[in-house]
Specification:
There is one protein chain. The chain is globular and about 45 Å long. Helix 1 runs parallel beside helix 4 and helix 4 crosses helix 6. It is α+β, with helices and mostly antiparallel strands. The chain has a single domain, classed as Histidine kinase-like ATPase, C-terminal domain (Heat Shock Protein 90). Strands 3-4-2-1-5-6 form a six-stranded mixed β-sheet. Helix content is about 35%, strand content about 25%.
């Protein structure tokens, strides 16, 4: 099970990076009685036969994990969404990419906490590789959006403790602005 909604985003977005996406868009939308998490990428995508088995806990994409024969990430995501009165949709096409959308009832007693979005986003921005990562968080009528490339340029990259600290401070300030 995922301990927080941020953990779900981290798990799904890491899969996008592994799928060699060059553009990943992650959004969190809190409005009315719903929370909607979405991850969209332009990675390798899944053929229909793999897409059809994506939520099967006793299946994982061949070659994805050398020592595992099961994949529990998406089944746990589905279980969490459904326990919270929501749903999950997964769309994918080979050569186009994948989009996962999760909805949750905001007032569900089973809703995991949001978790540490600033650290989650920063850790995803800090993954090695050449990809653009866009993050947007909307709470009712207030939002912010940041791109990996913009934040890296503003703080001088993510290679030093100082720049990571500045990036985290920025992300925390943006989250606080949504209150």
């Amino acid at each position: 099970m995922h301990a927080s909604l941020a953990d779900i985003l981290a798990d799904v977005a890491a899969n996008s990076i592994e799928a060699r996406a060059t553009r990943i868009e992650v959004s969190v939308r809190e409005a009315g009685d719903r929370i909607v998490l979405a991850v969209k990428d332009n990675g390798k995508g899944m053929p229909p036969e793999i897409l059809a088995r994506a939520f099967d806990p006793f299946y994982t994409e061949p070659g994805k994990h050398d020592k595992r024969k099961v994949g529990m990430g998406l089944p746990f995501v589905r279980q969490t969404c459904e326990a919270c009165g929501g749903e999950v949709t997964l769309e994918s096409a080979v050569g186009v990419g994948t989009t996962l959308t999760c909805t949750f009832q905001r007032n569900s007693i089973d809703l995991p906490p949001m978790g540490d979005l600033p650290n989650t986003v920063l850790s995803l921005f800090n993954y090695p590789g050449e990809f653009e990562f866009l993050f947007k968080h909307q709470r009712d009528d207030t939002d912010y959006e940041i791109a990996r490339s913009e934040l890296a340029e503003a703080v001088g990259g993510f290679a030093s403790v100082e720049s990571l600290g500045l990036a985290r401070e920025f992300l925390v300030s943006q989250e606080e602005s949504l209150s």
